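Minutes, project check-in

Agenda point 3 was the complex the collaborators sent over. CS summarized: four entities, 444 residues total, and the question is how they sit relative to each other. Sequences were read into the notes so everyone works from the same version.
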Amino acid sequence: MFKKVIIAEDFEEFNLAVQQTLNDFNIVNFQHAKYCDDAFLKIRKAIQDNEPYDLLISDLSFKKDHREVKIGSGDELIQKVRELQPEIKIIAYSIEDKSARIKSLFEDAEINAFVLKGRNSIEDLKKALTIISASDQKFISHEVASILQEKGNYEIDDVDIKILKYLSDGTSQDEIIEIFKNNDIKPNSKSAVEKRLAKLKDFFKANNTIHLVSITKDMGII
Amino acid sequence: MFKKVIIAEDFEEFNLAVQQTLNDFNIVNFQHAKYCDDAFLKIRKAIQDNEPYDLLISDLSFKKDHREVKIGSGDELIQKVRELQPEIKIIAYSIEDKSARIKSLFEDAEINAFVLKGRNSIEDLKKALTIISASDQKFISHEVASILQEKGNYEIDDVDIKILKYLSDGTSQDEIIEIFKNNDIKPNSKSAVEKRLAKLKDFFKANNTIHLVSITKDMGII
DNA sequence: TATCGGATTATGGATTTCCGTAAAATACTG
DNA sequence: CAGTATTTTACGGAAATCCATAATCCGATA
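CS then shared the predicted structure for the full assembly.
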């Protein structure tokens, strides 16, 4: 079982529950941070002191408040920690159930477990701890397990997302093309953008561009 | 202080924290429900037994799962409870920070306190309990307090919302007009809908309709 | 009933988006 | 290098939306 754990979680309620769970596993050496920045600093410090953490339990969404932060989301924190300390085990612990985001966590940041906050999340957290401490097996809450099997959104690339984001931000297609040209983004012709939008509308079964933006917002893609 | 409390909250973590807080106030007679339906039944039963609750602490968003429910959100639960038992005190306890929703809770359902889940929510919960048990004063977490002062969205009516919802659902303006005509919704001409959209875009400072839908989605209006 | 004001509806032209076709550029293959 | 395939770009007409103006309806009031 894990010896030294760090929790990144802004809500007291979840912190309390996680700590209680760790106690149940007789893990007493843990710390928590309410901001991603703090968590990252602690992890780096621990490495320097040659006493690295062997598990990170991190929330994904952190509330913004008065404090200015460098790392604003758990996704970023996890990514940076994975680079800094590749062998650390990571549990994402979040209410997030958007497939795009979870998928990218497993594929890009290579998290070891995803525990969905919900009616029985503590149970899941215990399972995750048991499984990933004993092996390199992954764990994912069953409510969202299916999304890992989903045939990929691999057809949707970075440029598509950019277009969608700009659209949802009130930018017209003409303006987007201008921006793309000024920033040397590769397909930047009127018809290329139009074609991509047509493809996206087809893919997401959207009736029109408004619908498309609405759908992709709901799915957490933008 | 309150004698008999019911908590409607689907997350174990929050239930635990709230119950601990009640214990701190020496409130021992409380129950909790993970589904709105259950909470409502308990409240009704308590009235019939002549032992009504004097406080409801309710979350707003409840996760959907396999179980079929009649009351799907805290907003609905609160509304129904307020009708059933007008004198009960109600604390909304939620992560929700969309002004439209909070405002309507105070104005329509006349909740007594709104506690925002966040880094210091337990502190706020204690304040709310103290204040509303002793008087008819309202409490609202300071992070969202400002929105009650906001000049109203009173310019936006039911038809506006309908239009926005249909748009975000992929319906074209022409189709919306058709639907309005078939359902005898009062302004149902091309230009009336266009005029309303122009007004909304002006109000929300949206560049175009896509932007408008995106903004109103973010604000929780649709 | 006459008239005023506000809201709704009608109309038409400018702009933007939509969508199909075709040319041009680029990549890949033998 | 020729030939094929894929991607990007160009063009143009159809459709939808945007926007300003004008006509019409409808309730309130004296």
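Noted in discussion: Residues 93 and 201 of chain B are 32 Å apart (CA to CA).
Follow-up: revisit at the next meeting once the mutant set is ready.
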